[in-house]
Amino acid sequence: MATGHRDKEQGFYAAYEEHTKTLRTWLVAYGIGAPVLFLTQPTLMGTLKTSGEGNVRGLLFLSGVGIQVILAALNKTIMWRLYSAELDREQVDKGGLILRVCDWLSDKYLIDFIADLATILLFASATAKVFRIVLAAA
Q1: Which terminus of the chain has fewer CB atoms gathered within 10 Å of its CB, N or C?
Q2: What sign results for the dihedral spanned by CA atoms 125, 126, 127, 130?
Q3: Coil, strand or helix: which one is 61?
Q4: How far is residue 65's CA from residue 68's CA, in Å, rounded to a whole number?
Q5: Mind listing the pLDDT tens digit for each residue in 13-70?
């Protein structure tokens, strides 16, 4: 029974890991790709420039990308510290504030969810405003 439970647990984690990679890749690609599209299309760029909204919309996209990069760096740092402690069990026995904080943070899914939600909201806001600007100018 324990083996079946462990297999199920691993299956859930594998699915979570795949979805996490897909979402983060999509968010960063969109957050970079959309502004690149605006910058490389003269008509879009001219319309945004005339509206005076280009800087703000660009900042929203880049802020979303920044959130994702910071989240990835935070997760990487936490996991490295926990991995390092597993390699050297003495570190776990000694404890230490950084290790305890990393252990605590590693269990906080809400951090990832809020960062992803904030990114999506920033992108949605920027995209909707760009569409309104372009459609108003058409």
Answers
A1: N
A2: positive
A3: helix
A4: 5
A5: 889 889 999 999 999 999 999 999 999 999 999 999 999 999 999 999 999 999 999 9
Compute the distance between CA of residue 20 and CA of residue 81 in angstroms, rounded to an integer: 20
How far is Cα 78 from Cα 22, in angstroms, rounded to an integer?
20
Burial call 50-86: b when 16+ CB within 10 Å, e when fewer:
ebebbeebbebbebbbebbeebeeebeebeebbeebe
Q: Give CB contacts under 8 A, 24+ apart, made by 109-113.
A: 111/71, 111/74, 112/20, 112/71, 112/75
Residue 96, token pair as written in the block:
């230490």
Q: Where are the domains of the chain?
A: 2-137
pTM, entire model:
0.85
Q: From CA 20, how far away is CA 112, in angstroms rounded?
A: 9
